[in-house]
Backbone:
């Protein structure tokens, strides 16, 4: 099927997003000259493919449902924030809060991700080819984050049920986060997500970080750690 | 002089600094090593709308006939950018309160009442329930730091979106829901394990300052094809600057919550000691809008201690476009009442108040989830004490009373439209209120810190 092509240097963003919401009818879409514009491909809710040829600003593919969005460049703050389903692939680096609060779907970042990657995650999966910045997975509630590189400070601070798998080093664990032994299911999970993201690492190289669950309930002796 | 039981007289002098309330606080802290958490709002006395009065009409102003002449209360919110502004029959809305803090029955009752009264309800920290969407004709959907249950389908179903920066009871703090209230349905809606003590985030996960907020607002507009109004809710603190920043970020409507505003559960030190009174905040917000020349372009909703039709009228006269009510709505439902109504009969709830260590008139135990009148609970037995139809009737009656009181005052001031009430109609009874509201002390032209005699 031929792609519908939009050139953001010619067509206003609002028109492009409205087309994606109402008139895409399953056709593949290509967006040219994004030039770091914010809010590209927000709120897609059908199984369409969207390719963005260049760098994007804040919230690219935000709240995605069903669509498959590829960003052929770097992504600004909050890429795929609150994603519900579908797939978002950043071929470059991602700025802060990548995949924030995502409830479903798969976010793939080929390069590094900045601070707070996967903050508040609620069930989505994130695979980062490079490293992640401090406070990644902060208060993450559900879902899985695979980090092929290293993590900066306070990874997994105040985690709930989300699980982190990391291949490289951890500068420091956040409050209530702990390393746990990998089970067969964990290796399988990592293998499956790496395959989906098309990264070739051995799942055996990954370590598991999850919540120690010491902050799940008020505790007078916890010394204000929460 | 006091008399002992034996008739001997002796002198007891209570310390002002270390009175029985403070002694109790210190001894509790010593016993438990943990601060007190409670529901509702600030209990201390604050300068408030009670400290203002209307001048009414006489020879220099011409009144309207109280029972005959028209006085409209229609209110339109969100006219700045949204294609579909919110149109209400009255300038009195129901504040955001979560399913989780309130039962599903209560959320349904509020929706039914608001629909009948021609006003809106607001979701809360816990997402949109189907009961609420079905029962409420005009539903405002909150986007909170926690993002519990936040999803694009519900954004599309909503009539407006309210980005919550803060709350008057705790500006700078996130929500709390103790484990007793995190039942299976609440847990599922919030993607949390059942029964945990939930502490919500206080900052949004995907934006930090006002420049980011501008882009976040645009994201929500793009998602909704620029149809729905975007409200921004702030807790009252540095209100003049915060309102300016929210307007600059592109808000259609500012929701301003003063320190008397309620909460389902927060540290009492936060409730009583952080934030500024509604009266002072409202005046600052109006000044910010006037300073930007945005009065009437960006609408202002004020909340935090609105209880009576007089409070509504005073808020409007000071420059608000509408008010929002939380705690008083719960009280209309029966909060702090001695009885609850089940199967058309009043039943005493006093024993259940006592079991919580409190009594009707003093209860602020929303955080326990054991609300004796079935309002702030997720308990299967207790929640049945609030029947949606009964609750809806009481809330509708309450809203109707406020609206009638509001028009009574407006007519007395000679206004055919409640939105025509103005600051000039008001005077202050105390020096504090005069200074905070920037309204002259009654019988003078004196506004402390502003004008000379």
Residues:
């Amino acid at each position: 099927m031929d792609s519908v092509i939009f050139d953001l240097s010619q067509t206003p963003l609002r028109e492009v997003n409205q087309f994606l919401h109402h008139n895409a009818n399953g056709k593949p879409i290509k967006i040219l000259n994004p030039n770091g514009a914010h809010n590209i491909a927000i709120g897609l809710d059908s199984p369409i493919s969207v390719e963005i040829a260049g760098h994007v600003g804040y919230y690219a593919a935000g709240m995605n449902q069903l669509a498959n969005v590829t960003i052929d460049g770097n992504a600004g703050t909050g890429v795929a924030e609150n994603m519900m389903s579908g797939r978002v692939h950043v071929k470059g680096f991602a700025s802060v809060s990548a995949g924030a609060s995502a409830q479903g779907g798969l976010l793939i970042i080929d390069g590094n991700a900045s601070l707070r990657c996967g903050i508040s995650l609620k069930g989505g999966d994130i695979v980062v080819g490079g490293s992640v910045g401090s406070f990644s997975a902060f208060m993450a509630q559900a879902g899985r984050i695979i980090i092929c590189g290293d993590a900066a400070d306070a990874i997994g601070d105040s985690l709930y049920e989300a699980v982190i798998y990391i291949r490289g080093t951890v500068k420091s664990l956040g409050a209530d986060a702990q390393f746990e032994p990998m089970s067969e299911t964990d290796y399988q999970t990592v293998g499956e997500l790496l395959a989906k993201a098309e990264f070739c690492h051995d799942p055996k190289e990954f370590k598991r970080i999850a919540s120690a669950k010491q902050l799940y309930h008020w505790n007078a002796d916890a010394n204000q750690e929460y | 002089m006091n008399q002992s039981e034996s008739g001997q007289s002796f002198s007891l002098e209570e310390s002002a600094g270390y009175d029985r309330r403070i002694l109790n606080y210190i001894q509790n802290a010593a016993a438990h090593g943990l601060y007190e958490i409670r529901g509702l709002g600030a209990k201390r006395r604050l300068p408030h709308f009670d400290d203002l009065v209307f001048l009414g009409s006489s020879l220099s102003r011409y009144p309207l006939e109280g029972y005959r002449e028209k006085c409209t209360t229609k209110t339109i919110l969100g006219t700045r950018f949204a294609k579909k502004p919110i149109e209400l029959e009255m300038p009195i809305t129901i504040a955001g309160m979560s399913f989780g803090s309130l039962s599903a029955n209560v959320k349904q009752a509020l929706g039914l009442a608001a629909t009948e009264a021609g006003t809106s309800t607001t979701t809360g920290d816990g997402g949109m329930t189907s009961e609420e969407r079905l029962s409420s004709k005009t539903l405002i959907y909150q986007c909170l730091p926690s993002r519990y249950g936040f999803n694009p389908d519900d954004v599309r179903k909503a009539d407006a979106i309210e980005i919550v920066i803060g709350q008057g009871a705790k500006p700078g703090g996130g929500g709390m829901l103790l484990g007793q209230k995190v039942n299976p349905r609440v847990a599922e809606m919030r993607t949390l394990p059942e029964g945990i003590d939930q502490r919500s985030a206080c900052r949004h996960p995907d934006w930090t300052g006002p420049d980011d907020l501008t882009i976040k607002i645009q994201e929500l507009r793009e998602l909704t094809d620029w149809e729905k109004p975007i409200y921004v809710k702030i807790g009252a603190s540095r209100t003049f600057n915060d309102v300016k920043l929210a307007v600059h970020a592109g808000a259609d409507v500012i929701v301003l919550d003063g320190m008397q505003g309620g909460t389902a559960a927060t540290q009492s030190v936060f409730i009583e000691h952080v934030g500024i009174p509604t009266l002072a905040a409202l005046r600052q917000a109006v000044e910010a809008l006037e300073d930007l020349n945005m009065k009437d372009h960006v609408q202002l909703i004020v909340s935090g201690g609105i209880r009576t039709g007089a409070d509504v009228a005073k808020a409007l006269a000071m420059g608000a476009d509408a008010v929002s009510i939380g705690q008083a709505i719960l009280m209309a439902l029966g909060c702090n009442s001695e009885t609850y109504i089940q199967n058309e009969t009043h039943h005493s709830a006093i024993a259940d108040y006592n079991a919580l260590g409190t009594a009707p008139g003093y209860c602020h135990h929303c955080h326990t989830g054991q609300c004796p009148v079935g309002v702030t609970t997720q308990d299967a037995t207790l929640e049945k004490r609030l029947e949606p139809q009964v609750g809806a009737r009481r809330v509708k009656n309450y809203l109707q009373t406020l609206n009638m009181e509001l028009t009574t005052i407006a007519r007395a001031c000679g206004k055919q439209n409640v939105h025509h009430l103005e600051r000039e109609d008001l005077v202050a009874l105390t020096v504090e209120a005069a200074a905070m509201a920037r309204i002259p002390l009654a019988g003078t032209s004196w506004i402390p810190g502003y004008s000379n005699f």
User: Anything to note?
Assistant: The longest helix of chain B spans residues 388-412. DSSP finds 14 helices and 20 strands in chain B. The mean pLDDT of chain B is 95. Chain B touches chain A at residues 32-34, 146-147, 150-153, 155, 178-179, 190-193, 196-197, 199, 201, 205-207, 212, 215-216, 218-219, 222-226 (CB under 8 Å).
